[in-house]
From TrEMBL:
<keyword id="KW-0614">Plasmid</keyword>
<dbReference type="InterPro" id="IPR036105">
    <property type="entry name" value="DiNase_FeMo-co_biosyn_sf"/>
</dbReference>
<comment type="similarity">
    <text>Belongs to the NifX/NifY family.</text>
</comment>
<protein>
    <submittedName>
        <fullName>Nitrogenase iron-molybdenum cofactor biosynthesis protein NifX</fullName>
    </submittedName>
</protein>
<dbReference type="GO" id="GO:0009399">
    <property type="term" value="P:nitrogen fixation"/>
</dbReference>
<keyword id="KW-0535">Nitrogen fixation</keyword>
<feature type="domain" description="Dinitrogenase iron-molybdenum cofactor biosynthesis">
    <location>
        <begin position="37"/>
        <end position="132"/>
    </location>
</feature>
<dbReference type="InterPro" id="IPR003731">
    <property type="entry name" value="Di-Nase_FeMo-co_biosynth"/>
</dbReference>
<dbReference type="InterPro" id="IPR013480">
    <property type="entry name" value="NifX"/>
</dbReference>
<dbReference type="InterPro" id="IPR034169">
    <property type="entry name" value="NifX-like"/>
</dbReference>
<dbReference type="Pfam" id="PF02579">
    <property type="entry name" value="Nitro_FeMo-Co"/>
</dbReference>
<dbReference type="InterPro" id="IPR051840">
    <property type="entry name" value="NifX/NifY_domain"/>
</dbReference>
<dbReference type="GO" id="GO:0051540">
    <property type="term" value="F:metal cluster binding"/>
</dbReference>
Length: 164
């Protein structure tokens, strides 16, 4: 079985692992087939576009590519034919994962890796997803996103009685 192939934007130095996250930014992965749209289920995604998103901007940091993906048939794979674990391993360090769908067992693995999966009902452009994420960061993030931000070190963690 093959792991992920990484296409990273390398500024000044060569690295062998995921790029370092921009301070104050969330690392966001988007399941995509064409690198222009959020248009894939987690298991069948051939690629994940990974961005650092802050309230001010976003930046593509890498593209993860997978040759072995689910066929969305709903049939369980044979023992040792795990196509999900390499994806989860490659996505470690991401805070949010946007996809069209994700199965229960995959969601458990993603959440265990401290990645918050977000199912989006219809395909849409990556730019729209990033723009909405940035707007949420600028305005009043929902409670689940405030928790992700605090865990990511992107904001100060407030005591429960200090929240709005």
């Amino acid at each position: 079985m093959t792991g992920a192939r990484r296409l990273s934007i390398v500024p000044d130095r060569v690295r062998s692992s995921a790029p370092k996250r921009k301070v104050g930014a969330l690392r966001v992965a988007i399941a995509t087939q064409d690198l222009r749209s959020l248009d894939a289920h987690f298991g069948s995604a051939k690629r994940f576009a990974v961005y650092d998103v802050s309230a001010d901007d976003w930046e593509l940091v890498e593209v993860l590519s997978f040759e072995e993906v689910s066929d969305e048939s709903g049939k369980h794979r044979t023992e040792g034919d795990d196509r999900i674990a390499p994806k989860v391993e490659a996505l470690k360090g991401c805070h949010l994962l946007f996809c069209l769908a994700i199965g229960g067992p995959s969601a458990v693995k993603v959440v265990s890796a401290k990645i918050h999966p977000i199912k989006v009902p219809d395909p849409q452009s990556i730019e729209d997803v990033l723009s909405r994420t940035r707007t949420m960061l600028k305005t009043a993030p929902p409670p689940w996103l405030r928790k992700v931000l605090a865990e990511a070190g992107a904001t100060e963690k407030k005591a429960f009685d200090e929240e709005d």
